[in-house]
Amino acid sequence: MGTDRLVLVWADGTPHRETRVDGRPMGSKRTLHSVVGSTGPQRRDLEARRRIFASTLALLEERGYAGMTIEQVATEARVGKATLYRSWPNKAALVLDAVRSRLKEVPTEETGNSREELLAVTQEAMASFFGAPQVQAVLPALVADTARNPELRRRLREEVIEPRKARSRTVLERAIGRGDLPADTDPDLVLEMWAGAMLFRSLFYDGKYDAEALERLVDAAIASPPRSPRDPAPLEEPAPQT
User: Could you tell me the pTM of the whole model?
Assistant: First the structure.
């Protein structure tokens, strides 16, 4: 018999690939989005990972990043500590994978309509994340702990935020290339404005943007997008004194 295999689709949009189920780490991107034809050991592995991620997020909400431990996750998820450490070398890696497991893929498909593509980014990649009940529950703890833990903040930025931001940026740059946005539009600032507005509502108003509000966000960016800073004019030499 050959080695059991899982067919995985990563939540961050990386291509499908087959991964051996032999007890070894599954790589830096372990977030299972779907599994095809999983039975027996594969099914148990998938169910264990779902319990692990659910327990991780529940403990993060209840105790915060600093207050939770790998041992607590193992107890809540009904798995051995060795199972966790085999796939996640530390707590930060586990928490980031658990967060990734709740993220939808950033849509980058080209439709020929810039407004539709930008709406897809705000609806699928941003509003669905900030407005998801489980994400809303853990955001306050995660935000608080990143302020106290520079390493967690760095890893969250580099491993979760920046890859998704890069995919979203391609959609904005495509709109710029079509002439639907000015050539000097600042894509990063557009994305940060959208994310900031949604994060603010999620943290302080316990809600999410509906379809009509998202359309207004996108239309505002199209009508008057933030621009990249221009190089300041060179200083003129003072006139000689006579």
Answer: 0.70
